């Protein structure tokens, strides 16, 4: 195994890139990315492509800024299928865990895209059973190694944080 544990299961957690607040008439759900967000999503797409482990499926919030981030990321990947979950916008980290547990076991790598505070809570729950507080600026990427052979047995604290990176830290 490489340092990223290539033969294990992995959960990528990606917070949407920076959104555009210029149109006050838009509902929060409909806010798009701003120019900085578009660039950051490109950067993160290139970065994910460079990793030895690639997402095989994407589970995402359907909010506009998350959708735009996912579509930009996918341009750099092998076009993994995407499933949209309203609960990733309106719900909580337990809704995301429930969706992950529904994955079929031949899938080893999933990318979750969405919003804070849900993604910070999810990351904290998975890597430390909620003990550690994790901060995820816009377009942050977390990669977690899952220490279980199947998705159904995913449990809080039963994972290892392998990567936490954000666009400003990358020179791509």
Give structural notes.
By secondary structure, this protein is α/β, with parallel strands linked by helices. The chain has one domain: Phosphoglycerate mutase-like (Rossmann fold), CATH 3.40.50. The chain is 30% helix and 19% strand. The chain contains five helices and six strands. The protein has a six-stranded mixed beta sheet with strand order 3-2-4-1-5-6, with helices on both faces. β2 (57-60), α2 (64-74) and β3 (82-84) form a beta-alpha-beta unit. α1 packs across α2 and α4 (93-101) packs across α5 (118-128). The radius of gyration is 15 Å and the shape is globular. The chain starts with 8 loop residues before the first strand and ends in a 7-residue tail after the last strand. The mean pLDDT is 93.
Topology:
Elements: E1 9-15, H1 35-50, E2 57-60, H2 64-74, E3 82-84, H3 87-90, H4 93-101, E4 109-114, H5 118-128, E5 141-146, E6 159-165
Parallel strand pairs: 1-4, 2-3, 2-4
Antiparallel strand pairs: 1-5, 5-6
Helix pairs in contact: 1-2, 4-5
Helix content range of the residues, please? Answer: 25-40%
**Structural class by SSE content:** alpha/beta
The dominant shape is globular
* Total domain modules: 1
Briefly, what CATH class?
Alpha Beta
Largest sheet: number of strands, sense, barrel closure:
6 strands, mixed
So, the CATH homologous superfamily? Phosphoglycerate mutase-like
The number of strands is: 6
Q: β content, as a range?
A: 15-25%
Report how far apart the termini are. Answer: 26 Å
| SSE string | EHEHEHHEHEE
Strand order of the largest sheet: 3-2-4-1-5-6
Low-confidence parts lasting 5 or more residues at pLDDT below 50? none
Provide a count of the helices: 5
CATH topology: Rossmann fold
Q: If you average the pLDDT, what whole number results?
A: 93
Question: If you compute it from the alpha carbons, what radius of gyration comes out, rounded to the nearest whole angstrom?
Answer: 15 Å
CATH architecture: 3-Layer(aba) Sandwich
């Amino acid at each position: 195994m490489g340092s990223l544990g290539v033969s294990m299961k992995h959960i990528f957690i990606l917070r949407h890139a920076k959104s555009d607040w210029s149109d006050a008439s838009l509902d929060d759900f409909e806010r798009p990315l701003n120019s900085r967000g578009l660039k950051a999503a490109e950067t993160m797409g290139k970065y994910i492509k460079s990793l030895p482990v690639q997402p095989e499926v994407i589970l995402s919030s359907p909010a506009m800024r998350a959708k735009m981030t996912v579509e930009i990321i996918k341009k750099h990947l092998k076009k993994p299928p995407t499933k949209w979950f309203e609960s990733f916008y309106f719900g909580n980290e337990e809704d995301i865990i429930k969706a992950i547990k529904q994955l079929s076991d031949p899938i080893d790598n999933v990318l979750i895209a969405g919003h804070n505070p849900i993604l910070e809570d999810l990351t904290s729950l998975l890597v430390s059973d909620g003990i550690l507080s994790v901060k995820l600026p816009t377009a942050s990427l977390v990669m977690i190694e899952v220490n279980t052979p199947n998705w159904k047995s995913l449990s809080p604290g039963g994972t290892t944080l392998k990567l936490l990176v954000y666009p400003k830290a990358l020179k791509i």
